[in-house]
Write a structure and sequence with these properties.
The chain is globular and about 45 Å long. The chain has a single domain, classed as q2cbj1_9rhob like domain (Jelly Rolls, Sandwich). Strands 1, 2, 3, 4, 5, 6, 7, 8, 9, 10, 11, 12 and 13 form a 13-stranded antiparallel β-sheet that branches. By secondary structure, it is an alpha+beta fold. It is about 25% helix and about 25% strand. It starts with a helix and ends in a 14-residue tail after the last helix. A hairpin with a 3-residue loop joins strand 2 and strand 3.
Amino acid sequence: MQQEKLQLTKQFEASKNEIGFFYLDNLLPKELAASIFKEFPSVEKTVLRKSLKEYKYVAYQMDKYSPILEEVLYAFQDKKVVQLIEEICGLTAIFPDEFLYAGGLSMMPKDKFLNPHLDNSHDKDRKHWRVLNILYYVTPNWEDSFGGNLELWPKGLENSPVTITSKFNRLVVMTTHQKSWHSVNKVLVDKARCCVSNYYFSEKPVLDTDTFHVTSFRGRPSQKLRDVILRFDNKLRMGIRKLFKKGVRKNPHQYKK
């Protein structure tokens, strides 16, 4: 990342007025990246998320799994790494989340997906703004035609997305704010797209116009009925959060150390 800093900065600068992002291939030595993939847990040892919004497996209680998985997650929280990404993205005073709120591991075998959505604007205590999404893909030989790829919707859901292939050993960093709609298209092959994910936070939002919002899902342009249902669900959950600032229940998706 340090070697490619200038090019990554240019890449981010070119997109920052919509959904700022950059990606870097061959992040780690190939053998190390393959070892990380090999140690991903079986789906039986993960948590299934299945609804109209998403269909995937997640893991976040990291002491249950191979040590290398926890090590790679927290490598992205190293101060030097955070500072480097901060400089590339032109942000200040950002920090990671040791409790991996909504982060950790995700696995998407065949037919799994993640509908267009905005990430929750804050951390678990609603004290800090979520500003960056850090995604590291580790499934070997992944191709665009396999599906399971990241989609960014900088022009809104009425227009075509920018697709970033979940290529092996690829790091993707994207900003998260109230306009950063993103999704993962359906996996089409009998393989699992595996991803290591972190979020970075800050005392202030990326956009001055940002306001608090829960994780908000939408239907794809072709999913008219699903879009109506998900819009209603978003409004309902936002209404609840106005009454109960931290929600009616504690989100279990965090690393209990």
